Amino acid sequence: MPLVQGWLLDCYPSRDGPGMTFWLKTPEGQAVKLKDSEWRAKIYASGSSCSDKDYVLARTQNPELIHSLRYASKRANFFHPKKSKVLEIELEDAGKIRKLAESLERSFQNPDYFQLYNVDLLPEQQYFYEKDLFPLAFVEADVNGNEVVRWSVLDNIAAYNYETPNLKMLRLDVGISDSVPRLESKLCSIELSEPEKERIAEIEGKSEASILSEAMGEIQKFDPDLIITRNGDAFVLPFLYSKAAKFFVENVSKFNRDAVRERSELKTGGRTYFSYGRILYRPATHRLFGRLHLDEQNTFVYDQCALEGLFEVSRLCRIPLHTSMRASIGKCLASLQSYYAAKEDILIPWKPETVEDTKNAYELFVADRGGLVIKPLPGVHEHIGEVDFASLYPSIIRKYNISAETINCSCCSDSKFQIEELGMHICDRREGIIARSLVLPLDKRFEYKRLRDNAPDERLKKIYNERAGSLKWILVCCFGYLSYRNAKFGKIDSHIAVCSIARKTLVEAMHTAEYSGFRVIHGIVDSLWLSKRNAEMLDYEELRKDIEKNTGFKLAIEGIYKWIVFLPSKTYSKKQVATRYFGVFEGTNALKIRGIELRRHDAPLYFKRCQEKILSELAKCDNEEELRQCARWKCVPIFEEFAKDLEDHRARATELIITRRLSRNPNEYSSQRQLSVNAAAHLSKQGLELKAGQSVSYVITSYKSHGKERSIPEEELSSAVQEYDSERYVELLADSCATVLSPFGVTKEELLTRSFSLTSYS
After folding, report:
1. Nearest 5°: phi and psi at 467?
2. I need a surface site. Which of 3, 99, 474, 503 has the fewest CB within 10 A?
3. Cβ burial, residue 231 (10 Å; 0-12/13-18/19+)
């Protein structure tokens, strides 16, 4: 029987019948299409209504969606270790899981008698879990024709130095007639290029149909594995599909590598959702079949950790690449947890209803306190050391076996894991799903950081750093996901338990430090800033060992600062906040910055350049006296230089762009005076309707105006005319510079006064 080896590039439900379709990238660089026509997607149901499968089939509104019904032994309630009889529903079409689930829900409306499971799992995830496969796994397939008979995984998901395929990547950019992109705009050009290489083709100066047809021919000729776009989901692909339909360009189907997927559905719109206190927007996904489509404006993991980080998350979480490119970290984490649940025959409830354990008012007061924060002492501090627990919250979850089903379990109230403060106990007889799912991410992140620090060349350092960075986001998310209302294995009590242990751990670390003669300057959740006269790195190393021994958790020494400044709240100047500071490390003169404009994504680039230049001067200083001299005699002139360019309109308007996220649809605001809403109204006139959760970028043109011309969107900026309100921008620049200069005696008011006199300092 023939064997095919390669990396698992793409996977999706077959359109020409049941089963799954796969694309392997062989070591020789070929893309090979395979199928498993015998496999079918499954969902499960439990409850008294499932006792007769013929009754279930008779009550179903869409029985044609069901291929077969049978009984299976699974854990429908993950709080209990015993299995029970459930109804296994095999589908005719793996792509219609949600349609069947909604039909069954309408037929059996009482959840007390009929509950559904595994509905949210993609067919690809189900297949990966069952076959122990994962994206970009190097596999060997026994095939009969193009049918997979058996998979052999020649890879290890726990490996650190795994190989990835040499993907052929193609960047696609379109040129249009309008400054504001619309489906009705004229297609002027299509540019195709390999990332960081020479341009392949630029097609322009022809009819729209010819441009599109010729570009598709070039794409087919190049045969990329990965197509990269900017705003591809929201505009580029819908725009090209609409042009293809208008001008009857047939070969637009060549965006897909799979010939069966000839017709591509034109999707517009998206969805607005709420996450971690923010209103967000996600455009409709335009995935390709047999190829990957990466939209640089609709990807979190790639944006934070580049391709190696994206590959690591996809492999570890067993989530298809086209999904992980657009998924939130929470969705990736949920897939990781679901895999370990599947290995234990635990079913994933479609609509979980896990509730918090009952508490009286006092118990709630004690429990609901979050992480421990010691407010920083204000002002400039010299010779301060910072120590941080390495991945403290996920390490607590792993060490104490914290999961929804292990908190206050019914099997071992005398467990060795007791949280006296809360009167809780944690199971020590069975491993929790969440705790188990964090073992590999924690081990791999620690090892990637070690490999990065010891890597012999920059290429390997970059790879290990990107992979470690992606795992950091998984570990950061795991704690918040414990109390997320839609988490399949979440429960608020497990979240509370982690916070309690973290508070206790930080207090133990503080006491250890104080016993060793250190003074705590600031503390937040898992970090401490400490002071001790004449303390050197050797003293901090000894302290690190003592804290690790007393707490049982790994501690890292961030470094010793020459000086550090903890900033007050911008709204309440007399109130210290935990996450606004900047400082310079001894030896390297490296800056560490948190919570100021230079770190903010929405601040204008011009302000960041000015603030960065000021901080570079401050970094040369060794003590507070030098800082005060430098702030007044070297940094104020920097502000004046930037302010003068603003007043004379020499600053480029493109560097003054401010970005804000809309919290509601633009037409739902009572007034358009708000700058971001004002800019969105301009776009609306051009036919581009923004939605709640989308961002709008604009330049302030007339701040004091009461009309609708207070700002213009980035799309309407003229390259010839630098249109902006210089007076307002000078004021905002002064505010930005005062953030880093006010601790040294230079106020915003003083900056504004001197910005107009432009005094020279010697």
Report:
1. -70, -45
2. 3
3. middle
CA-based angle 516:542:523, to the nearest 5?
60
Helix (H) / strand (E) containing 88: strand 84-91
Comparing 141-145, 260-264, 286-290, the range with the smallest average pLDDT is 260-264
Quote the CA–CA distance of 98 and 88 in Å, as a whole number. Answer: 15
Could you tell me how far CA 436 lies from the centroid of its own chain?
A: 22
CATH of domain 373-435+482-595: 3.90.1600.10
Judge whether 67 and 40 are in contact, CB under 8 Å. Answer: yes
Give whole-number Cα distances, 378 to 384, 496, 628, in Å.
13, 30, 16
Of the candidate ranges 41-45, 93-97, 155-159, 677-681, the one whose mean pLDDT is the lowest: 677-681
**For residue 1, what are the CA distances in angstroms to 4, 26, 136?**
10, 18, 24
CA triplet 269, 272, 277: central angle to 5 degrees? 160
Backbone angles phi, psi at 337, to 5 degrees: -65, -40
Amino acid letter at 208?
A: E
- Model confidence pLDDT, tens digit, residues 700-740: 988 888 766 788 888 877 654 567 899 999 999 999 999 99
DSSP line for 346-406:
B--BSS----PPP--HHHHHHH---S-EEPPPPEEEEEEEEEEETTHHHHHHHHTT--TTT
- pLDDT over 90 at 549, yes or no: yes
Range 479-484, long-range pairs (CB < 8 A, 24+ positions): 479/393, 479/394, 479/397, 480/276, 481/330, 481/333, 481/334, 482/397, 482/402, 482/404, 482/434, 484/330
| Conformation bin of residue 232: beta by default, left when phi > 0, alpha when psi is -120 to 50 | alpha
Residue range(s) of every CATH 3.90.1600.10 domain in the chain: 373-435+482-595
Q: Would the pLDDT of 1 be above 80?
A: no
* C-alpha span between 634 and 720 (Å, rounded): 33
Say how many residues make up the chain.
762
CB atoms within 10 A of CB 575: 11
Ranges in the chain annotated CATH 3.40.1820.20: 658-716
Report the C-alpha gap between 153 and 136 in whole angstroms: 11
Residues spanned by CATH 3.30.420.10 within the chain? 169-343
CATH code of 658-716, in short, is: 3.40.1820.20
**Which H or E element spans position 707?**
none
CA distance 279 to 25: 39
User: How many other CB atoms sit within 10 Å of the CB of residue 695?
Assistant: 15
Provide the CATH topology of domain 169-343: Nucleotidyltransferase; domain 5 (3.30.420)
Least confident of 48-62, 261-275, 519-533: 261-275
How does pLDDT run across 185-216, given as a tens digit for each residue? 889 999 999 987 878 888 888 898 999 999 98
Question: What is the reported pLDDT for 501?
Answer: 94
Q: Quick one: average pLDDT of 412-435?
A: 87
- List strands edge to edge, sheet with 169-176: 199-204, 187-193, 169-176, 226-229, 292-295
Contact 386, 561 (CB under 8 A): yes
CB neighbour class for 455 (10 Å; exposed up to 12, middle 13-18, buried from 19): middle
What is the pTM assigned to this prediction?
0.87
Can you say how many angstroms the Cα of residue 596 is from the centroid of all Cα atoms in its chain?
21
User: How many angstroms separate the CA atoms of 118 and 120, rounded?
Assistant: 6
Instruction: Give the C-alpha separation, 243 to 240, whole Å.
Output: 5
Sign of CA dihedral 327, 331, 337, 339: negative
